[in-house]
Amino acid sequence: MITGYNTDVEFGGVVYHVQTEDKGLQTPIILSLVYIGGAILASKRAPYDDLIARGFDEQILLERLQRQHKLICAAVHAGRIEDLKRMGERDAASSTAAREKTSKANQVREPEKQAPPADSSSSVADLDDAPLTVKLINEPDLRGGKSVELRLLVTRPAKSGRAPAPNVKLVLKTLGTAFATNMVDATTNEGGMAAISLSLPEFRKGRAAILVQAEDNGVTAELRRIILPGQN
After folding, report:
1. Euclidean distance between CA atoms 158 and 164, whole angstroms
2. pLDDT digit string (tens) for 197-225?
3. The domain containing residue 109 runs over which residues?
């Protein structure tokens, strides 16, 4: 197993922690995780079965690990958090399909044996087990100079899936390179919902985003959306 990498990357006033590691020859996967405040936001799994099949070369594995770590750090630095989340979703879906296929094959050939559980540490985009999640129910056009209402839903794990999380504190920050940061506080109702109305600052150049942070008894979750420049 090769020692991994840990890097803090700042974007929009927020520090993200990127960790990339080799899971070892028993589970030949290069796994990258993006954290903020201890919560996992996104992941990237890259199997290297092909490297083992043609003759294991530790130097090639090291180069792959370094390249993946640099790419993830670059994506975070560019503010592509949502892209990384979607990539994690695709990885999780592919892993689930592969496990189901393997399970069915084992049931046909060897009904008395069960395949060992697959490594589940990459289920980053699958939020079923996340201690707290915040989602945007509506997707308004976020553009500089517009007034919008954001309808947010906060949930936590329950026996039958996920349940609304009432009385959770929310902080919405409007971040940008061309204007000062603005903050709005809110609290979820009994249905885990909160509606926040805000006027997005007018800007024509630079980058901007909204960052929603949820906190409940030390457990945190975040949501980010890009704000587009105002139209002429």
Report:
1. 9
2. 999 999 988 888 899 999 998 888 888 88
3. 5-126
User: Does residue 184 contact residue 228 with C-beta atoms inside 8 Å?
Assistant: no
Q: Are 44 and 85 in contact (CB under 8 A)?
A: no
Rg of the Cα trace of the chain? 21
DSSP track, 79-128: T-HHHHHHHHHHHHHHHHHHHHHHHHHHHHH-TT--PPPPP-TTTTS-GG
Query: Domain end: 99, 126, 153, which one?
Result: 126
Report the sign of the C-alpha dihedral through residues 179, 185, 190, 195, in that order: negative
Domain presence at residue 231: no
Same domain, 121 and 140: no
pLDDT tens readout for residues 76-123: 988 888 888 887 676 665 555 554 554 454 444 444 433 333 333 333
CB 220 within 8 A of CB 21: no
Q: Is residue 40 part of a domain?
A: yes
Cβ atoms 170, 230 nearer than 8 A:
no
Q: Are residues 155 and 220 in the same domain?
A: yes
Asked if residue 179 and residue 149 are part of one domain, the reply reads: yes
> Among candidates 84, 196, 176, 81, which has minimal Cα distance to 136?
196
CB atoms closer than 10 angstroms to residue 25: 12
Amino acid occupying residue 51: L
DSSP 201: P
